[in-house]
């Protein structure tokens, strides 16, 4: 499966990749950023980490030409210290994290991340975990469900949508859920009315915001002095946490901000890769 990495030139620029360096791609996905880093290495290597074992296997295949320069690790952000230790690394020279769902997860209908096709309500990035979107949709109390949709999806119609979901239970598939939402929330030109609810469920199922906060907390233990970290987010919820996390590290004197303002893709990149449209990059150097 082909994958076009987002902001790849900017990632390489801010990481300042050295041929002998050791790097971490915390969200390897299908290997786009990992390959770009590996191409610049000689004696160094990059650790390709992902919590989705199936994505990681596709990444392994895609990166076969650079196999000697890549190490693979299956795990969450909160397990990255163990990943470095497993490969004999104290701290890396750089780390990149491209947040959100991967192309494989979004385009494989069986994973249940999208309502573009009918599939079980799954949304697990790591399919070895128990919690699924179906369990949340069919068992959570109405108020708690409304709070989840509002908080993680920033959906103003959260109460109305939660009420409709509870009345329509049981809901088993992506299209069933999308239709329930569409009946009570008017369609806009910009977004399908189910978009923000699906995003909220995905974030909740995978505990994404807590894992991101853990990554920001662990970064000083993962990246050496003089090393760099680059984070790409696609939602304001994520970007706010990255911004505030980096600002807190800067106030503590632990990092120097490399990006005074968020870096966005060029118009040319968006034309060639529409998926890049909402990408936002921030970078720091550790002191």
Structural write-up:
- It is built from 13 helices and seven strands.
- It has helices at 8-15, 32-38, 53-62, 80-86, 103-107, 133-139, 142-153, 158-168, 174-184, 195-206, 208-222, 236-251, 267-272, and strands at residues 22-25, 45-50, 70-74, 92-98, 223-233, 255-257, 280-286.
- Helix 3 links the parallel strand 2 (45-50) and strand 3.
- The mean pLDDT is 95.
- It folds into two domains: 8-104 and 208-286, Rossmann fold (3-Layer(aba) Sandwich), CATH 3.40.50.150; 110-206, Putative methyltransferase TM0872, insert domain (DNA polymerase, domain 1, Orthogonal Bundle), CATH 1.10.150.170.
- With 287 residues, the protein is of the alpha/beta class.
How are the strands ordered across the major sheet? Answer: 3-2-1-4-5-7-6
Task: Tell me about the largest β-sheet.
Answer: 7 strands, mixed
Structural class: alpha/beta
Total of DSSP H or I helical runs spanning 4+ residues: 13
- Rg is 19 Å
* SSE string, helices as H and strands as E: HEHEHEHEHHHHHHHEHEHE
Number of DSSP E strands? 7
Average pLDDT number: 95
Going by CATH, the architecture of the largest domain would be: 3-Layer(aba) Sandwich
Task: Chart the SSEs and their pairings.
Elements: H1 8-15, E1 22-25, H2 32-38, E2 45-50, H3 53-62, E3 70-74, H4 80-86, E4 92-98, H5 103-107, H6 133-139, H7 142-153, H8 158-168, H9 174-184, H10 195-206, H11 208-222, E5 223-233, H12 236-251, E6 255-257, H13 267-272, E7 280-286
Parallel strand pairs: 1-2, 1-4, 2-3, 4-5
Antiparallel strand pairs: 5-7, 6-7
